[in-house]
Amino acid sequence: MTDKAAKGRTAYYAGLAAEDQVAKHYTRLGAEVLDTRWRGEGGEIDLILRLAGITIFVEVKKSRDMTSAADMLSATQVTRIMVAAGEYMAVKGLMGDMRVDAALVDQQGAIEVIENITLDF
């Protein structure tokens, strides 16, 4: 296996672990996990949860620190997530409130959730 392939494999599994950590964080708050890594025509959504009547679409970003993780999120990506979120709601026949969160995970496993990131872009 090449160094590039090994790094890619490591990043993939680190991302899965970060998504699992974030899902557990939300479930401790009382959320129900509806889907993970859901892919629609608009793109992929890492986590989809339901909490207090709100459908929450979560983009998980893992990096060495919170600032680096936040820097990985772009306005284009947020727009794609919003399109995919609308598609998910339509496909699943869901109605009601929804929001898009960013969950940042650093190399120590700390989690910082930024709620409703659509307001920031």
Reading off the top of the CATH hierarchy, the class is best stated as Alpha Beta
Number of domains: 1
Low-pLDDT segments, ≥5 res: none
CA(first)-CA(last) distance: 39 Å
Q: Compute the number of helices.
A: 3
* Computed structural class: alpha+beta
Q: Give a short account of the largest sheet.
A: 5 strands, mixed
CATH topology title: Trna Endonuclease, Chain: A, domain 1
The helix fraction, in percent, is 40-55%
Mean pLDDT: 91
Order of helices and strands: HEEEHHEE
Strand content: 25-35%
* CATH architecture descriptor text: 3-Layer(aba) Sandwich
The beta-strand count equals: 5
Largest beta sheet: strand ordering: 1-2-3-4-5
Structure notes:
This protein has 121 residues and is of the alpha+beta class. The protein is globular. It has one domain: Trna Endonuclease, Chain: A, domain 1 (3-Layer(aba) Sandwich), CATH 3.40.1350.10. The chain has a 5-stranded mixed beta sheet with strand order 1-2-3-4-5. Helix content is 41%, strand content 32%. The longest helix is centred in the first third of the chain and has 26 residues, at 3-28. A hairpin with a 2-residue loop joins β2 and β3. The termini are far apart.
Features:
alpha+beta, 121 residues, five-stranded mixed sheet, single chain
Describe the structure in brief.
The protein has 121 residues and is an alpha+beta fold.
